[in-house]
Amino acid sequence: MSAVLTPVRAATVSRIATATLTVATRGTGFVEITAEARRFVEAAGGGDGVLLLFVRHTSASLVIQENADPDVRTDLVTALDRLAPANAGWVHDAEGPDDMPAHVKTMLTGVSLAVPVVGSVPALGTWQGIYLAEHRARPHRREVVLQFLGAAA
Fold first, then answer.
1. According to its UniProt record, what is one Pfam family this protein matches (predicted)?
2. Strand (E) positions, 1-153?
């Protein structure tokens, strides 16, 4: 096996910027927020650093996934439904049969992401996109806190 390390780029944290993105969902599925994340880094005047994203909910999550073929997202919804089905006999059902499975799906996928920013651009791969995953059946308004930490552009 061989590995090659690129030259190290060093920067001093001189900029911390924060904003909240409100995302309207249509129910279970994925909403791509990559463009909004890029616009935030640009508006923050970010150079090299890190973009942090945090969803302020327990029944929705954040993921980085393929952004080329929408069948991937369809299959991911199916996979999560198999891992945490609505009819599994959950004790917590006060908010409906999809609530506890949504909590489990959030626990599996996570509520935060850290994306490197290089040269003012999130360093995502060619086919990667940032998504808010809605795990509830009905539409919601979700809040995602975005924060850039790093050097100014």
1. YjbQ
2. 15-24, 29-32, 46-55, 60-66, 112-118, 121-122, 128-134, 141-152
Residue type, 3: A
Query: 6-9, long-range: CB within 8 Å, 24+ apart, which pairs?
Result: 9/48, 9/118
- Taking only the tens place, the pLDDT of each residue in 4-41 is 999 998 889 999 999 999 999 999 999 999 999 999 99
Q: How many CB atoms lie within 10 A of CB 99?
A: 18
* CATH for the 24-152 domain, from 3.30.160.340, 2.60.120.460, 1.10.287.950, 3.20.20.390: 2.60.120.460
SS3 of residue 77 by DSSP? helix
Domain boundaries in the chain?
24-152
